[in-house]
Amino acid sequence: MNVAYGEEEMKRFLEEATQVSQEHPVVITKFILGAREVEVDAVAKSGKVLAHAITEHVEDAGVHSGDATLILPTQTISQGALEKVKTATRKIAKAFEISGPFNTQFLVKGNDVMVIECNLRASRSFPFVSKTIGVDLINVATRVMVGETLNESVLPTLENPIIPVDYVGIKVSVCCVCVCVCCHFYAF
Fold first, then answer.
1. Are residues 88 and 27 in the same domain?
2. Is the peptide bond before 164 cis (omega within 30 degrees of 0)?
3. Helix axes 126-133, 137-145, angle to 10 degrees
4. Percent above pLDDT 90 for the chain
5. Which residue ranges of the chain lie beneath pLDDT 70?
6. Rounded to two decimals, what is the model's pTM?
7. Do residues 11 and 48 share a domain?
8. 180: in domain
9. Structural domain count, the chain
């Protein structure tokens, strides 16, 4: 992934891409400088969001979500932007009649909110948000998918979220580096 800051740089990147493969598409996305990334991990049933959690990437947008540091609750996102995120989440779940887990990623710059993508699966952050808010979203998603009835009054809905007030959950990507240790065995 590269950021092109001008037309000539864009042409060079596209030429490099065609050298790698002329058969596969190139995805071009507008890079929005200074934007933050926000993710919603949620569970819906027949298009209605039953449970959710909203996290914020610590790094500015552009870092892959698997490598990003996430915080819950959000720290720098305005209430107005969060309401737009919730509204978009609600509309996406309804439009696609989602039943089960899903993750939606957003770009937020000030009060402007843009959808990056929606994945119809449990994301890597589902265990993190489940532990942080104290609701097992995988269990909720599983029960939705097998058709069980849920007590929705105890779930973190868009209207009544569970937002920690006396702690902040932080998910940090850990990179393992292999260290080679040479062991010498001596026979006497």
1. no
2. no
3. 110
4. 69
5. 1, 175-188
6. 0.83
7. no
8. no
9. 2
